[in-house]
């Protein structure tokens, strides 16, 4: 449960930073005023998705670690798309909507994933290798904390 929580929190933070920075980039490229607050956002749904995805990532990373960084990145990218699509599909079936509806994008698939995010997921997967090492290093210390 602790590892799930650590990956969930990391995912939330990464998404908040991503949405804030892409908001700035959008405003800058469309001649709009840049929000000085750098407001980012995420969804409550994302915590178990990022947490569970992190646990699945650990297994995948163990299996693909001998491969080149390019192959690992491609596998991680495909895995991120699969997790995003499956979780979005399930949420849509349960609630009638996908919280991160991408149907406005030219590159969307059923409004659930954006194919133009392939480079993002490629890099995110490689970044998760470092996050996994950090989680593995700090988890023993956190187990001894009286919550």
Write up this protein.
- With 147 residues, this protein is mostly helical.
- The chain has one domain (2-143).
- The mean pLDDT is 91.
- It contains four helices and two strands.
- It has a two-stranded antiparallel sheet.
- Helix 1 (2-29) crosses helix 2 (46-64), helix 2 (46-64) runs antiparallel to helix 3 and helix 3 crosses helix 4 (118-143).
- The relative contact order is 0.14.
Distance between the termini: 14 Å
The main β sheet shows up as: 2 strands, antiparallel
Morphology call: globular
Sheet/helix structural class: mainly alpha
**Overall number of domains:** 1
Please, how many helices?
A: 4
Sum this structure up briefly.
The chain is an all-alpha fold and 147 residues long. It contains four helices and two strands. It is 68% helix and 3% strand.
List keywords for this structure.
mainly alpha; two-stranded antiparallel sheet; 4 helices; 2 strands
What is this structure's SSE topology?
Layout: H1 2-29, H2 46-64, H3 69-95, E1 108-109, E2 113-114, H4 118-143
Antiparallel strand pairs: 1-2
Helix pairs in contact: 1-2, 1-4, 2-3, 2-4, 3-4
